[in-house]
Amino acid sequence: MSHHPFQILRAAHAELRVSDLSKSRAFYVDALGFVVSDETSTEIYLRGVEERNHHSLILKKSDTPAVGHLGFRVASNEDVEALYQFYLQQGCYVRLREPNEEKGQGLAVLVQDPFGFPVEFFSDMTALEPYHQKYHLHRGGAVRRMDHFNLFVPNFSAAFEFWQKELGFKLTEYVETDEEPQEKTAAWLCRKPSVHDIALMKGAGPRVHHIGFWMDDMMSIIRVCDILGGAAMHEHIERGPGRHGISNAFFLYLRDPDGHRIELYTSDYLTIDPDLQPIRWSAQDPRRQTLWGHSTPESWWKEASLVLDVQTSQRVAVSDYPPNGVAAQYIK
């Protein structure tokens, strides 16, 4: 990984705009077992049972469901300032957010990145009392922690170059066509020593395909299936449970009451070694998505969440083609 003037640590939180807070609360808190850190009549701040930061998921009431932003933690406030300057130089819309502008969070930078995604970087967040051993208080699926984001991008090669070379993410696995000239169509990139903090897939965007949360083990994912089935909430299950070829993780994909896709994820592998070579998957190999070869529902390939414009709070238009603006400099 090359040296950069900032140190991004990991995927840390997401903000979802939702149409009905009570329905969303029943899904995320009662069924999946997120812990409520704070809530008002218009927003709920949630965290996994092992997370000590104030939140890893924000639910905000809105007439138009969308992804408000995706948050990454950095090592220091100096990194926040460096990222502010970096995105200014990229020609992006970017602004600093003052401490507690987002509840529980310190100084942050919010940017509409070159590919249209609303992304936030922060260092400080209010620390809360450990909850992971309060087993008597765990409920539902007892989701553990934030793990990753997966994005649909119209120009994969440009986005891949940006996240890898400009932001310093490490490639762990990728999908590539077999015919010449070979073309990468998806990539898994990390900052923490796991398979990914972010995955990029070629497709109409900018859209967020899913947000992934870590679970204890395979049985904890199966327990979520039982909870949803028992509560007559089985229609929230979109795909799985199963085992990915890519990442080797055990997974379950759910759709929340507004259609946002959530992955429950466990059992991938360590990627900290500097000489670790990326794993290539053929675009023709069905095992890349499910190691056991099961087919993937059409909705998984086509549907995803729209994202917000950080200036207007309107949803960003989706395109099948590369944008003509800032991202053009990364298009070969």
From TrEMBL:
Domain of life per record: Bacteria
VOC domain segment(s): 10-124, 145-267
InterPro entries named among the record's database cross-references: DHPA_dOase_Mn/Fe (IPR011981), Glyas_Bleomycin-R_OHBP_Dase (IPR029068), Glyas_Fos-R_dOase_dom (IPR004360), GlyoxalaseI/FosfomycinResist (IPR050383), VOC_core (IPR037523), Xdiol_ring_cleave_dOase_1/2 (IPR000486)
Cofactor or coenzyme needed: Fe(2+)
Annotated keywords: Aromatic hydrocarbons catabolism, Dioxygenase, Iron, Metal-binding, Oxidoreductase
GO MF term list: dioxygenase activity; ferrous iron binding
A Pfam short name: Glyoxalase
Alphabetical list of PANTHER family matching this protein: GLYOXALASE FAMILY PROTEIN
Family: Belongs to the extradiol ring-cleavage dioxygenase family.
Name of the protein in its database record: 3,4-dihydroxyphenylacetate 2,3-dioxygenase
